[in-house]
Amino acid sequence: MDLPRYEKIWLWFGVITLIIFLLVTGIMAFAMDRHPADGHERTVAPDQVLSTAPFDKPGVYPVGDKEYQVVMVARAFNYLPAAPTVPAGSTVHFRVTSPDVIHGVAIPGTNVNLMVVPGHVTEFTYTFKKPGEYLLLCNEYCGIGHQVMMAKMVVQ
User: Fold this and answer.
1) At 52, is the secondary structure helix, strand, or coil?
2) Which of the residues 70, 99, 108, 137 could staple to 49 if both were Cys, CB 3.0 to 4.6 A apart?
3) Annotated domain spans of the chain
4) What region holds the Cytochrome oxidase subunit II copper A binding domain (predicted)?
5) How far is residue 74's CA from residue 120's CA, in Å, rounded to a whole number?
6) What architecture (CATH level 2) is domain 46-155?
């Protein structure tokens, strides 16, 4: 098969680019021992979520001046705690996990949008500047009661 000259050039360019990509990825993965979520991933056994600290006592905990940690458990078909409350202007550090299936935590009107995988600890920080009640919705289909899985975040 006879290919035009420019087509051959672009084919060789693509092949060389692919080889360079695979070499760099291989060197980073095996020689440099670099992997996605390098050391940042926290896990807990899904069947022991409700008996492992801090998820054995979900709630709101102060960690500094106007800074709170909200420890949550997302399970079919509710959130624990159901209505975490913080003062307005607070920085909230969410720590969420699930003992059963994949869930989500989305707060409309904010950039809070978390995927909660069973046994994996999902962390996110957000500052609530305006007081009010914020709706927490599950945005990952989690089963037949998914449409009723919601809670509220109270900012006073």
Assistant:
1) coil
2) 99
3) 1-35, 46-155
4) 65-156
5) 12
6) Sandwich (2.60)
